[in-house]
Design a protein that fits this description.
477 residues; 7-stranded antiparallel beta sheet; 19% helix
Length: 477
């Protein structure tokens, strides 16, 4: 334990008084619960909201060992997958077919929200209320893309949690989680919002709210409250190399969860708008390469053939800055904006192309996924960047679903390509916005640029395309 040193007591007292004054002023101005010290009154919050939280136990017919990994997580390499496990010890050893999780009541007539991975493949679901009543639950619907499930228990006059507005969540605000880590029901843990619109390698449809709230196996599906006592997120994932809490936890924004739950209640399944683009964040290197003043927007790296975006005239290299009147500051902002628009409706898109702002209208489609294949190529040299590239024949292009490009065969670990994180087997589709059809064309284009210039390469890696910024080195460097 670290003890206070006498020299620092006075500044601490001054700081504490200042924080108390600010927090109390905020409590008076708003509805947040604060105690006499000006800090959040979590005791009152738990007392008022704990009865809206439930514990969930599931039985599965299969005896295969079960984790809470989503399908997209299972597709990750093992070295990445272990860092984004969702409640990896949710099921007891030996594959007994049992699992635990959390949830919360969203209506007085018995609807309960939780994670899809908590109840996936369940043959029986039992919900335990705060008053210790155990009620069998029916699975109304499951949406794996957002990891949201809706349950129904046969009961009336239940205490329902109030759902807030996750669009208003701010980094640094206090939050509280209530759930059943390791089966210890109604455990409360607190922290702050660490980040918003966080995208994870495990994929998923909606960007997460990141917190430092202690979340462990069994917390999945439980609510994340703000100090007003309203739910702003559904606890879903942890970042961990051990399977337990390590300071990083992630919640699904409640606006996304509520939209999905409404659809599950109405039709038993969820549908969402689809734009038909693969997007990525714009870093400083790409901002320089595209001539932007600062990194902003969602950079379109590829489009689905015959998709809504392609039909509306969007192109790879476009940077979406606004969608239907809402700002798009980073790529994680876009999926949620698109998803809430029903298929068939018209949306307005503002984008930057060649440094100029353009406005397009797009007819939103229905969400779907795309896959492509991998293949081999012949060799040629592009030594200035420290890579060897190869030609793609017609069969390879057809297998990968692309019309042009060159394959990276080797990467010099000391060259510019390695510094830009280009890897063997990447396919280079375009250079500075111009399509590449052969290794010789690629080399000729590289040699036209002055040393020190940053240019954008569009590469395809596996199933996904993305832009990388690469700095042109001096000749013979």
């Amino acid at each position: 334990m670290i003890k206070s040193v006498g020299t620092f007591r006075q500044p601490r007292q001054v700081l504490r008084q200042a924080l108390a004054t600010v927090a109390l002023a905020g409590a008076v101005a708003g509805s947040s619960v604060a105690n006499a010290d000006g800090l959040p009154d979590f005791e009152t919050l738990v007392e008022e909201q704990a009865d809206t939280v439930v514990s969930i136990a599931v039985m599965r017919e299969t005896l295969q060992p079960t984790t809470a990994e989503s399908p997209s997580l299972q597709q990750l390499p093992e070295e990445l997958r272990r860092f984004f496990q969702q409640d990896p010890r949710q099921q007891p050893p030996g594959g007994s077919g049992r699992g635990i999780g959390s949830g919360f009541i969203i209506s007085e007539d018995g609807y309960v929200m939780t994670n899809a991975h908590v109840v996936s493949d369940a043959s029986e679901v039992m919900v335990t209320l705060d008053d210790r009543r155990q009620l069998p639950a029916t699975i109304v619907g499951v949406d794996e893309s957002t990891d949201i499930a809706l349950l129904k228990v046969d009961a009336d006059d239940l205490p329902a949690a109030e759902l807030g507005n996750s669009d208003e969540v701010a980094v640094g605000e206090w939050v509280l989680a209530i759930g059943s880590p390791f089966g210890l029901d109604h455990t409360a843990t607190q922290g702050i919002v660490s980040a918003v619109s966080r995208n994870l390698p495990s994929g998923g449809y909606a960007p997460f709210i990141q917190t430092d709230v202690a979340v462990n196996p069994g917390n999945s599906g439980g609510p994340l409250f703000n100090t007003d006592g309203v739910v702003i997120g559904v606890n879903s994932q942890i970042y961990s190399s051990s399977g337990g809490y390590q300071g990083l936890s992630f919640a699904i924004p409640i606006n996304v969860a509520r939209h999905v739950a409404d659809q599950l209640k109405t039709s038993g399944h969820a549908s969402r708008g689809w734009l038909g683009v693969a997007i990525q964040d714009v870093d400083q290197g790409l901002a320089d390469a595209f001539g932007l003043d600062a990194p902003t927007g969602a950079l379109v790296s590829s489009l689905s053939e015959n998709g809504p975006a392609a039909a509306a005239g969007l192109k790879p290299g476009d940077i979406i800055t606004e969608f239907n009147g809402s700002k798009v500051n980073r790529s994680g902002d876009l999926p949620g904006l698109v998803g809430v628009i029903p298929a068939g409706e018209i949306a307005n898109v503002t984008l930057l192309r060649d440094g100029k702002e353009r406005n397009l209208t797009v007819t939103i489609g229905k969400f779907e996924t795309q896959t492509v294949a991998v293949t081999d190529a012949a060799e040629s040299s592009a030594g200035r960047l420290g890579i060897v590239v190869g030609k793609l024949d017609d069969e390879m292009r057809e297998q990968r679903g692309i019309a042009h490009g060159v394959r990276v065969i080797e990467v010099d670990p000391t060259g510019s390509a390695a510094k830009a994180a280009i890897l063997p087997d990447d396919i280079i589709l375009s250079l500075d916005g111009k399509s590449i059809d052969s290794p010789d064309e690629f080399i000729d284009q590289i040699d036209k640029f002055d040393a020190g210039k940053r240019v954008a390469l569009l590469i395809q890696r596996g199933e996904h395309s993305r832009y990388v910024a690469i700095e042109i080195p001096k000749l013979h460097e």
